[in-house]
Amino acid sequence: MRSFIFRTAGIALIVLSALSCVSGKKYKSLDDTSKQFMNERDDLKEKNIGLEMKNTELEARIASAEKETTELKKQQSKVAAERDKALGDYNSLASRYNELQNAQEDLIKGNVRETQKLLEELKAAQENLQKKEDLLKQLSESLDNKKASLDELTYELEKRNARLSELEKILDAQKNMVQELKKKVSEALLGFENNGLTVTMKNGKVYISLDEKLLFKSGSYEIDVNGRNALKKLAGVLEKNPDIQVVIEGHTDNVPYNGSGQLKDNWDLSVKRATTVVRVLLEGSKIDPVRLTASGRSEFLPVDGKSTPDARQKNRRTEIILTPDLSELYKIIDKY
């Protein structure tokens, strides 16, 4: 008789253990929302990287333009010096020519060849001077064009730097917002942290993870008094931060759910637990229901992939994900 009782108790324990699994039903809308946020964050990082690459390219082009400008200035100075020398030569020849014209007629007649030579040299000097003047004019025009191009590139670089600075300020503000939110949540749930509850930051969001034992009994979706108390404290924080979007995810282990009634499998259980948490958060609070999303992840998003009792216990959890308002960041992105 005693052996029969022991066998019966063992079977009962095995059944109870099988019933301790947690499950849930995944809502497509949450996956879409999470993926959209991750894609937008990746797009933002990609745009920031693109801006930095464009800034680097602009800076290289500016450096090249400045180098060309310096070279043109050197050429301009050289041509100006040559022009001045040619002008001096021209004035000297003109002076000698005038002296010959004022000389006595017999002296002029005796120096016809020298006069003709001076005239030819004077003509050549005039032509050389004109060439130098034309070249100097071309160099001045080229220098003006380079300066205009350099000013345009500098203006474009300043615009891009201003945009990058603005985006960085918004990103820093969002990061500070998430850090401040995590601090508020941790302070509100101080008595529960490391007691089946953890608060972490990841991907610009605050993650509140609650072990199964903190909220539910094995195989149940009814929240006990201790878990209800923790959720009420969290609801107080959410009321004071109306711009925060809230996602509640139910997670189970990989042990098939063998219960009966309205719950058929782990999907059902995880979803039911998520919706129960939503109702507790809304109960007696001023939280806008539009901010809340409930979903079930079943066994398919474990934190520990091992098939051990400890791993399964970690996977049986409820996660509340808080996402800050990114509308200001989107406005800056749309602006450009």
Report what the structure shows.
The chain has 336 residues and is of the alpha+beta class. It has two domains: 21-42 and 175-335, OmpA-like domain (60s Ribosomal Protein L30, Chain: A); 54-173, Helix Hairpins (Orthogonal Bundle), CATH 1.10.287. The chain has nine helices and five strands; from the N terminus they run H-H-H-H-E-E-H-H-E-H-E-H-E-H. It has helices spanning 2-18, 28-102, 105-110, 112-188, 212-215, 225-240, 266-282, 309-315, 327-335, and strands at 197-202, 205-211, 245-251, 292-298, 317-323. The protein has a five-stranded mixed beta sheet. Strand 1 and strand 2 (205-211) form a beta hairpin.
Biggest sheet: strands side by side, in what order? 1-2-5-3-4
Structural class: alpha+beta
CATH topology of the largest domain: 60s Ribosomal Protein L30, Chain: A
User: Proportion of β residues?
Assistant: 5-15%
Rg, nearest Å: 42 Å
Oligomer state equals: single chain
How many domain modules?
2
Compute the number of helices: 9
Give the CATH superfamily of the largest domain.
OmpA-like domain
User: What is the terminal separation in angstroms?
Assistant: 82 Å
What pattern of helices and strands is seen along the backbone? HHHHEEHHEHEHEH
How does the major sheet shape up? 5 strands, mixed
Number of strands: 5
Helical residue percent band: 55-70%
CATH top level assignment of the largest domain: Alpha Beta
Which second-level CATH architecture of the largest domain applies? 2-Layer Sandwich
Q: Low-confidence parts lasting 5 or more residues at pLDDT below 50?
A: 11-27
Question: What best-fitting shape do the alpha-carbon axes yield?
Answer: rod-shaped
Mean pLDDT, as a whole number?
A: 83
